[in-house]
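pinging the channel bc i need a second pair of eyes. not urgent but kinda urgent?? the chain im working w is below, pasted from the shared doc
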Amino acid sequence: MLKNKKLTLTLIIYFILFYTAWAGFGWLIQNHILDWTGNNEIVVQTVRSVIVKNLVWTLPAFILIKHFENDCYIGLKEMFTTKVKLLDVLPIFIACIIYTLAGVFKKGDWSIVESFGWSKIIIVLFVGITEEMVFRGWLLNVTVKNADREWKQWIATAVNAVLFLTIHFPIWFYEGVFVRNFQSFAFTSILILSCMFSWLFIKTKNILVPIILHMLYDLLVFMFIG
């Protein structure tokens, strides 16, 4: 439980505004932006991943981390400057690569998918940054601060994974894949990846590590799975 009442109230307001804004933007994409851009995926992803996500996701996260720095597990400057030992993170990176390539092996086709192009590259370059700053740099950071025991850190990680999963719901719903992702248990990959990213952040105290892994995962998926 968070001890700072101001922080607790801020998180409640943040959740409401953040999730409402993202759900509303998903509706706007499906009903207006796609038509305005002539279904140009590069323009859509530039608006979604570069402009909107940095203004609605990254910028507020930076401001809130800085404002509540005393309540954070890792300070804003520290999360970008803490030195990382390669051997501490290499097993997770290898596990993530194997996990992703297993999906390619199951698919049975190792050629680069036709849909891989600039729109996907934009996602790779920006989504990892925006999502990790919000869910690890901000939300996990303030909830794991009071986790004085390892089991409490795992609870914070599990809660963070559920929150990370639910932020995908609006897009899944508007794209018509919401039910399919649950019937096929595809949603479990989001939970697993979130736990990997969270563990890396807690272990290394460096937000760049989960950002890089997030980018690598997205790159492999878009290149070989689509």
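so The radius of gyration is 18 Å. and Residues 5-224 form one domain. — does that match what u expected or am i reading it wrong
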